[in-house]
Each structure stands twice: as C-alpha cells, then as structure tokens.
Amino acid sequence: MVQRHGAIWHSHSSHAARCHPVPVDKHFNADFYVTCATVIPVLFLALVVQGGTYENMLRTAMEAAHRHPGRGRDGAASAFLPAVAYLTLVAGVLGEAFALGALFSRWDTTASRATVMVMTLFLLVVIAAGPAWKFFGVQRSVEQLLGEKERHSFQPRARAGRHSSPR
C-alpha cells in the first residue's frame, strides 16, 4: 500500500503497482454517505406516509393566510409553515445530492460531511414533529381529564334521602 497525495494506492506485487480505478481519500467514510443516501429518501417516504404531513403544512399555511393575513397565530403559521416546507424540500434534495456526489467521487470535505449530517438531522426533526405534536396533544388532553376527575372526586357527595341540617 502506497500513499500519494492523500490517496491510498494498493500494490499487489513488488514489481508493478496497481491501483483502484479512482483514488480513495484515506479519511473518506463511505459508510456515512451510503447510510445518509439511504435514510434521506426513507425520511421523505415517512413524511408522505405519515398522513400527509407535508401537504397538511402547506394547507394549514394557506388557510391561515386566507383567514387573517399577518395577524397573530395565523400570521405566524402562514409565514412559518411554508418556510419549514421549503427547508424540508431543500434539505432532502441537497442532502441526497451531497451524499451521492461524495460517493460518486469518493472524496469529501468537512463541509460536505457537515452539510449531509445537518440536512439528514433536519429531516429527522421534521418527521418526528408530527407524531410528537400529536403525542403532546393527547398528553395534554389526558392531563386535563385527570385534573377534572380529581376535582370532582374531592367534592362532598350528598347522600340520597338524608340531609343533615345544622343545629
């Protein structure tokens, strides 16, 4: 094995040096890019299968913009949700493009590694946001119901047919 200009060349005999068709950077982590290139489309599929989360984001933003443009919660939704939808699309496309590009060239930089990682993690957060939102909504409802049940259980109950009168 001989190292030239950051690439590793393999020699199979002492007389003739043979090499890979493309030199491979000794620090290139192909497993990372293969994993991300596989996970990113799966995350997009999860977004679609998750009950139309992506379409719901866009629909909610449109409805909020038509109800009260620029006012309060609806204004925030009409500005925030399209931005998240746009960033989701960009994260998927750029993350996949960078991962496939690095695999194709068998070379990467710290910036490309960081870009792929950030884009993949962003998609993961967006995918997890839908179920997390639903979970916390259910949790809040359960807590409210339990709170009401506890308030009602501490109230004194009148016995049927017997009323006590103060003397």
Provide a descriptive summary of the structure in words.
This protein has 167 residues and is mainly α. 68% of the residues lie in helices and 5% in strands. The protein is built from four helices and three strands, in the order E-E-E-H-H-H-H. The chain has helices at residues 30-49, 53-67, 72-105, 110-153; strands at residues 2-4, 7-9, 24-25. Strands 1-2-3 form a three-stranded antiparallel sheet, with no helix packed on it. The longest helix has 44 residues, at 110-153. The radius of gyration is 29 Å and the shape is elongated. The termini are far apart.
Secondary-structure map:
Elements: E1 2-4, E2 7-9, E3 24-25, H1 30-49, H2 53-67, H3 72-105, H4 110-153
Antiparallel strand pairs: 1-2, 2-3
* Helix coverage percent: 55-70%
What integer is the average pLDDT?
Answer: 76
Side by side, the strands of the main sheet go 1-2-3
Largest sheet: 3 strands, antiparallel
Please outline what is shown here.
By secondary structure, the chain is mainly alpha-helical. The protein is 68% helix and 5% strand.
Keywords for this structure?
single chain; 167 residues; mainly alpha; three-stranded antiparallel sheet; 4 helices; 3 strands; 68% helix
